[in-house]
């Protein structure tokens, strides 16, 4: 294992130290609970937004804490969900009297830990808690017979749109309803060219041959749905975009917010090349791209590969997208 | 017949299990690498280490007290799905134990309550390729052998759990992270069922 770390057991805590050193003007850190807070939280009268999950997906979620996005991000161990204590502490801390929305990615552990935290919040405090479970990954079929679709790329876009809505003073009911609409409008699909190594495990989660790629991956280094021969970028883009387009379905005249996301180990030159391919495919399908993101936004440590996310966008979504945001991971208009 | 389990034995069970988990952490993580996310061994090891630390500093007057601490410690230190599942098991298990020693029948009631908690929390059933494939046959075997005493019942439970774990290996996972693999999850041993078997084997050694 070649990593810039000191001790596998200290990776998350030491990364938080660096996060505060770099962004202490906007963020503060609760080291005991491993929670990253917006510096001015709680904001009176504003719905508090909390997300969290395993670490190793940076900039998600800690990089999206700040004005216009999240109030707090709870950091679990690498690829392991945070525990109820952390989520409960954050829920109590960010409540400004308007209630708190939990943004949960659909993984068994995340859902259970957030559920336990919401039960504890209901029993121990007066904070009103709602939650949205993001499940946008089209690689998972047969949702009736699985834990359901995973929460992946749509989470980034949802945190931006819902963050803007909360900042503008919308109520908990309105913010929660918006979150459900964004989730329903978003679909993602990813592929990996390499595996990744969890520091505590010390070796790659799966082996992938030089001439193979893993199609339909999640974001935890877990193997995907199918192993296929390595394809050109043009073919790979088609393998990612086709299942997304047929799933919602999107059609001629629709407008989307599009994201080509790197998994952590793929250079931007390849991501832009992929974006060009995705753009061409959407043009062919008569789908307009209202806004886009190209870069590393929801990653799996050093995994090489990428994912494509499309969120069908109306004017309201585009306006929320354009609203000011000031976080380490996304910043414009502020 | 007539044998009981006391607070010291329960405490010994948890300490022994912490050692067993530490020794088997690489195996559990390797199993989890194949169909999950490669953290079951390290997560359980961290959780049981925290349990031993809590036992070292805490003073417990009853098994109910002890397992409340064990459950809360696991919930707050393990993360993932295993934390809430094992944590809920011990919280519900301890909730059925009184202040004094418990007999085979009382232990059976507690085991059932714990497993019911796992079902509620995880929304899974036998055949989904989860830890319940070990737990459910284990409590059935325990019930059938309970009249022969704690030791015999726990031994039967551990054996049934191991059979359940093995019978789930060829199955396709329907819950948990392994379910995302679809057909590719078949043929792999379930990590959660494996740590459950270890827990029951340790119980048979320490409580019987």
TrEMBL record, chain A:
| Protein name, as recorded | phosphoenolpyruvate--glycerone phosphotransferase
Reaction it catalyzes: dihydroxyacetone + phosphoenolpyruvate = dihydroxyacetone phosphate + pyruvate
- Describe the subunit structure: Homodimer. The dihydroxyacetone kinase complex is composed of a homodimer of DhaM, a homodimer of DhaK and the subunit DhaL.
Q: Which InterPro entries match?
A: DhaK_1, DhaK_dom, Dihydroxyacetone_Kinase
Organism in which the protein naturally occurs: Flexivirga caeni
EC number(s) on file: 2.7.1.121
GO cellular component, alphabetical, reads: cytosol
A Pfam family annotated for this UniProt entry: Dak1
GO MF annotations in UniProt = glycerone kinase activity; phosphoenolpyruvate-glycerone phosphotransferase activity
Query: Please, which domain of life does this record's source organism belong to?
Result: Bacteria
Q: Name one GO biological process term.
A: glycerol catabolic process
Q: Which UniProt keywords apply?
A: Glycerol metabolism, Kinase, Transferase
Q: In which pathway does it act?
A: Polyol metabolism; glycerol degradation
Domain DhaK: start-end pairs? 7-332
Automatic annotation (TrEMBL), chain B:
**Gene Ontology molecular function terms on file:** glycerone kinase activity
Instruction: Quote the InterPro entries the UniProt record gives.
Output: DhaK_L_YcgS, DhaL_dom, DhaL_dom_sf, Dihydroxyacetone_Kinase
Keywords from UniProt, A to Z, are:
Kinase, Transferase
Q: Which residues form the DhaL domain?
A: 8-205
What GO terms fall under cellular component here?
Answer: cytosol
> Which BP terms does GO give this entry?
glycerol catabolic process
Per UniProt, what is one Pfam family of this protein? Answer: Dak2
Q: Check the record and name the SMART domains matching this protein.
A: Dak2 (SM01120)
Protein name as annotated: Dihydroxyacetone kinase subunit L
Q: Provide the species name.
A: Flexivirga caeni
Instruction: Identify the gene encoding this protein.
Output: dhaL
């Amino acid at each position: 294992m070649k990593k810039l770390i000191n001790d596998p057991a200290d990776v998350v805590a030491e990364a938080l130290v660096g996060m505060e050193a770099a962004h202490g003007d906007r963020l503060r850190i609760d080291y005991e609970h491993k929670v990253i807070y917006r510096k001015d939280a709680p904001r009176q009268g504003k719905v508090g937004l909390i997300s969290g999950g395993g670490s190793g997906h940076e900039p998600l979620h800690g990089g999206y804490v700040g004005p216009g996005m999240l109030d707090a991000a709870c950091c679990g161990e690498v690829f392991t969900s945070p525990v109820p204590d952390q989520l409960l502490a954050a829920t109590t801390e960010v409540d400004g009297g308007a209630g708190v929305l939990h943004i949960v990615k659909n993984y068994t552990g995340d859902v259970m830990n957030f559920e336990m935290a919401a039960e504890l919040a209901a029993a121990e405090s007066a904070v009103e808690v709602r939650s949205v479970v993001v499940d946008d990954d089209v690689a998972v079929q047969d949702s009736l017979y699985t834990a359901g679709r995973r929460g992946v790329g749509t989470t980034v876009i949802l945190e931006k749109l819902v963050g803007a809505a909360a900042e503008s003073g919308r109520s908990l009911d309105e913010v929660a309803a918006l979150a459900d609409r964004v989730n329903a409008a978003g679909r993602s699909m990813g592929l990996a060219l390499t595996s990744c190594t969890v520091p505590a495990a010390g070796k790659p989660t799966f082996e992938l041959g030089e001439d193979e790629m893993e199609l339909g991956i999640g974001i935890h280094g877990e193997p995907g749905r199918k192993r296929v021969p390595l394809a050109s970028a043009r073919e790979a883009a088609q393998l990612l975009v086709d299942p997304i387009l047929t799933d919602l379905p999107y059609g001629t005249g629709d407008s989307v917010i599009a994201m080509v996301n790197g998994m952590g180990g793929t250079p931007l030159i390849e991501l832009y090349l992929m974006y060009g391919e995705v753009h061409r495919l959407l043009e062919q399908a008569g789908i307009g791209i209202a806004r886009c993101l190209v870069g590393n936004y929801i990653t799996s440590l050093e995994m090489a590969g990428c994912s494509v996310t499309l969120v069908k966008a109306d004017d309201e979504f585009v306006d929320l997208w354009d609203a000011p945001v000031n976080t380490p991971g996304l910043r414009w208009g502020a | 017949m007539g044998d009981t389990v006391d607070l010291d034995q329960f405490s010994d069970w948890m300490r022994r299990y912490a050692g067993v988990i530490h020794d088997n952490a690489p195996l559990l993580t390797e199993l989890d690498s194949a169909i999950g996310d490669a953290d079951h061994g390290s997560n359980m090891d961290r959780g049981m280490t925290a349990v031993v630390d809590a036992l070292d500093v805490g003073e417990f007057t009853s098994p109910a007290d002890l397992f409340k601490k064990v459950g809360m410690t696991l919930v707050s230190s393990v993360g993932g799905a295993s934390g809430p599942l094992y944590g809920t098991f011990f919280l519900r298990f301890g909730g059925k134990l009184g202040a004094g020693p418990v007999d085979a029948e009382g232990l059976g009631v507690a085991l059932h309550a714990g497993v019911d908690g796992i079902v509620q929390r995880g929304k899974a059933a036998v055949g989904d390729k989860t830890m319940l494939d070990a737990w459910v046959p284990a409590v059935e075997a325990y019930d059938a052998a309970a009249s022969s005493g704690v030791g015999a019942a726990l031994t039967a439970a551990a054996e049934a759990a191991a059979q359940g774990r093995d019978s789930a290996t060829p199955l396709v996972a329907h819950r948990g992270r392994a379910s995302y693999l679809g057909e590719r999850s078949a043929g792999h041993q379930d990590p959660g069922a494996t740590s459950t078997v270890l827990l029951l084997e340790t119980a048979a050694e320490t409580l019987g």
